[in-house]
Amino acid sequence: MKLTEAVIHLMEETTFFISEHTSFSVIIGRLPTIALVSAVVFFILLLLIIEQKNAKLRLYALPIIGIVISVFSVRYSPFGQVHMIDVGQGESILIKEPWGRGNYLIDTGGLANWNSEEPWEVRKSAFNVGEDIVVPVLKSQGVHRIETVIITHSDWDHYGGLDDLSKHLPIKAVLATESTLTDPAFLASLQHLQLTDTDMLSVEKHPLEALPEQLRALDSFQPTQDNKNNESLILIGLIGEYTWLFTGDLEKEGEQNLLKMYPNMTVDVLKVGHHGSQTSTTDSFLDHLSPTYAWISAGKNNSYGHPHSDVMTRLEKREIEIYQTNVQGAIQYRYTDSWLLDKLLHQVSFIQTKNIEKE
């Protein structure tokens, strides 16, 4: 057993040295029980082989391969997902492709900062949606880098976590409308991001760039002086078995314009606009799109009354299945692009999940 003790001691010393002298980290995700147990079993097997005298090199292959597969089973999972993160009164949606091919984030959430006048109103420690919610959730899903962060429009509750997110994970590109990329408040918030190599791309100039192949941006945003919501960048695409429409904070006028430009459009899953505000998700919009599912991101007991009872009535009247973060927490759709895995494991489903920080 002396050799085993020496190997373990060497691993401990190496780990300590790396943690003390470098900022290097490996994000593997939160391992499910079966993966964790498998990793331990393969590690014990490896130690037993090490204990054997004159063990052949090929005997090491099975436990080493088993450990690697178990440890990286989340990061390179054969299942993709659409994950609506529970960021409170805001919005952030992760699209993670199967086999770790790419990670995309639609908006980052963001908590408004209110000026506190009384000492009892000041938090002992500042809460940040990007660092305290979005980053832990992404890392728990094995996300080690983000290909593109898509900012739908320049409202703080959709981009407020972006700069802090860039401190923890590399971001290859940010995609947004020209009006968002030139918004003074948006630019002023990106103190750290502007020091990185992240590309800032306008969807008007790069409509097909930086998006996953199954998504495309709809040319429907209308720059206005009085309503940022109708400038929202709209995305549509086939993910898994369903056609999805991501609407940002689109309101009635924007919905009408969208239907005029795309009169034959129907979808399976509608990301309800503006957190379920009364000014969005009109009867004509729902009748035209005819969705089967509706996803709503809103804060629990929020002061805006989102989602509005009128919107809920419209959805329920049409027997649209509703998923909402203020009731169910984070929402996740898992899928695979492998027909065999789909049939054998039956993993294509909607799942209500709790965020990592709430468990």
Automatic annotation (TrEMBL):
The chain crosses the membrane at residues 27-50, 57-76. It comes from the Bacteria. CDD domains: ComA-like_MBL-fold. Residues 89-300 form the Metallo-beta-lactamase domain. SMART domains: Lactamase_B. PANTHER family: DNA INTERNALIZATION/COMPETENCE PROTEIN COMEC/REC2, RECOMBINATION PROTEIN 2. This is Metallo-beta-lactamase domain-containing protein. The lineage of its organism: Bacteria, Bacillati, Bacillota, Bacilli, Lactobacillales.
